[in-house]
């Protein structure tokens, strides 16, 4: 069990650029979640996948955000035309989809938009 | 509407003493789960303890215990014998069974600083 892996851990970009984050979940976990966390706040749900299907998207996920999970394994979160307000920690989590089971989180990808 | 409320932005505790972190929640779903996570300055979210809505007894995990008061919709975390390594941000979270996504909704968190 290698845990949930996210990369890059840190990304600094200029406003207007596109960025992509990758998440590798725990291998037997069929559910994958993306959250966003701003400084001093709790994580906010963005979107989730069950296997390769994206089943729910938060209203926080504007048209500039897109997430994929091809083949139900790793996932990518792309932000197009970044804005300073996109600066945050992007957390990925996975689970087996059990009601009582916790989400296993990666260490996050911190985005700074200049 | 805010589902999880943590009213203490920050707390100081003396090493070896106990500390209680408050959490209240709001749901009409009779089946739900409550979770506490720890987030050190390094950023990873570490699962601490879980309480199911139908569990009769309060959950305990080592130095962590959950004071579950269902009628008051309260799920406070108690950390006993605080250690310097307990300094971190702590989040209360809830999962509602009726939402098949099983996502967690988090509170704003409480920062705990343990003093030597």
How is the secondary structure organized here?
The complex is a heterodimer of chains A (about 110) and B (about 120).
Chain A: E1 5-7, E2 10-13, E3 19-24, E4 31-37, E5 44-50, E6 53-57, E7 65-68, E8 75-79, E9 88-95, E10 104-105, E11 109-113
Parallel strand pairs in A: 2-11
Antiparallel strand pairs in A: 1-3, 3-8, 4-5, 4-9, 5-6, 7-8, 9-10, 9-11
Chain B: E1 4-5, E2 10-14, E3 19-21, E4 24-25, E5 32-39, E6 46-52, E7 60-61, E8 64-69, E9 74-79, E10 88-96, E11 105-106, E12 110-115
Parallel strand pairs in B: 2-12
Antiparallel strand pairs in B: 1-4, 3-9, 5-6, 5-10, 7-8, 8-9, 10-11, 10-12
How would you describe this structure to a colleague?
The complex is a heterodimer of chains A (114) and B (116). By secondary structure, chain A is mainly beta. Chain A contains no helices and 11 strands. Chain A has strands at residues 5-7, 10-13, 19-24, 31-37, 44-50, 53-57, 65-68, 75-79, 88-95, 104-105, 109-113. In chain A, the strands form 2 sheets. In chain A, strands 2, 4, 5, 6, 9, 10 and 11 form a 7-stranded mixed β-sheet that branches. A 4-stranded antiparallel β-sheet of chain A has the order 1-3-8-7, with no helix packed on it. The model of chain A has no long low-confidence stretch (mean pLDDT 94). Chain B has 116 residues and is mainly beta. Chain B has strands spanning 4-5, 10-14, 19-21, 24-25, 32-39, 46-52, 60-61, 64-69, 74-79, 88-96, 105-106, 110-115. In chain B, strands 2, 5, 6, 10, 11 and 12 form a 6-stranded mixed β-sheet that branches. In chain B, strands 3-9-8-7 form a 4-stranded antiparallel β-sheet, with no helix packed on it. A two-stranded antiparallel sheet of chain B has the order 1-4. Chains A and B meet through strand 5, strand 9 and strand 10 of A and strand 5, strand 6, strand 10 and strand 11 of B.
The mean pLDDT of chain B is: 95
Pairing-aware structural class of the strands and helices of chain A?
Answer: mainly beta
State the order of secondary-structure elements of chain B, H for helix, E for strand: EEEEEEEEEEEE
Q: Which pair of chains has the greatest number of interface residues, and how are they split between the two chains?
A: A-B, 27 and 26 residues
Tally of strands of chain B:
12
Quick one: overall form of chain B?
globular
Largest sheet data of chain A: 7 strands, mixed
Radius of gyration of chain A: 13 Å
Fraction of helical residues of chain B: under 10%
Structural class of chain B: mainly beta
* Largest sheet composition of chain B: 6 strands, mixed
Question: Helical segment tally of chain A?
Answer: 0
List the secondary-structure elements of chain A in sequence, H or E.
Answer: EEEEEEEEEEE
Strand residues, percent of chain A: over 45%
Which segments of chain B are poorly predicted (pLDDT under 50) over 5 or more consecutive residues?
Answer: none
Radius of gyration of chain B, in angstroms, nearest whole number: 14 Å
């Amino acid at each position: 069990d290698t845990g949930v892996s996210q990369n890059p851990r840190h990304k600094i970009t200029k406003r207007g650029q596109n960025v992509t984050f990758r998440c590798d979940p725990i291998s037997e976990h069929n559910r994958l979640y993306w959250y966003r966390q701003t400084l001093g706040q709790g994580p906010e749900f963005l979107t989730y996948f069950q296997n390769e299907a994206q089943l729910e998207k938060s209203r926080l996920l504007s048209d500039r955000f897109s997430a994929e999970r091809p083949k139900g394994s790793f996932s990518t979160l792309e932000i197009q035309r970044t804005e300073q307000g996109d600066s945050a920690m992007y957390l990925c989590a996975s689970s087996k989809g059990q009601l009582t089971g916790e989400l296993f989180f990666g260490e996050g990808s911190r985005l700074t938009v200049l | 509407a805010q589902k999880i409320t943590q009213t203490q932005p920050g707390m100081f505790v003396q090493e070896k003493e106990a500390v209680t972190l408050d959490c209240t929640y709001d749901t009409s779903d009779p089946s739900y789960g409550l979770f506490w996570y720890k987030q050190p300055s390094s950023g990873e979210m570490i699962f601490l303890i879980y309480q199911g809505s139908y569990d009769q007894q309060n959950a305990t995990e080592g130095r962590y215990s959950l004071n579950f008061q269902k009628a008051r919709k309260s799920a406070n975390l108690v950390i006993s014998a605080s250690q310097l390594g307990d300094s971190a941000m702590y989040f209360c979270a809830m999962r509602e069974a009726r939402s098949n996504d099983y996502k967690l909704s988090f509170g704003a968190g409480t920062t705990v600083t343990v003093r030597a």
